[in-house]
TrEMBL record:
Record InterPro entries: DUF2007, N-reg_PII-like_a/b
Protein name (Swiss-Prot/TrEMBL): DUF2007 domain-containing protein
DUF2007 domain residues: 5-68
Pfam families: DUF2007 (PF09413)
Length: 75
């Protein structure tokens, strides 16, 4: 199994990240949110996007899960 992570979602909307995480967890897909601590640098105004990462092996299934639930993904 590959341990390489791949970006699935990038957004400044924390509610989208939370919803995506819940959907993925419901499907048994592990995910990791990156750039959460950037709010310290930006003063919590939400200008820096957060990234949701998944294992490369899970990417296609994760992308399909989000698209099936109305997410628009790059690529």
């Amino acid at each position: 199994m590959s341990s390489t992570m791949k970006q699935l979602l990038r957004t400044t909307d924390p509610t989208l990240i939370a919803f995506a995480q819940a959907l993925l967890q419901g499907e048994g897909i592990d995910c990791f949110e990156m750039d959460v601590n950037m709010s310290v640098l930006e003063g919590s105004i939400g200008i820096f996007p957060r990234r949701l990462m998944v294992r490369e092996d899970d990417f296609d299934r994760a992308a399909r899960t989000l698209k099936d639930n109305g997410f628009e993904l790059d690529g």
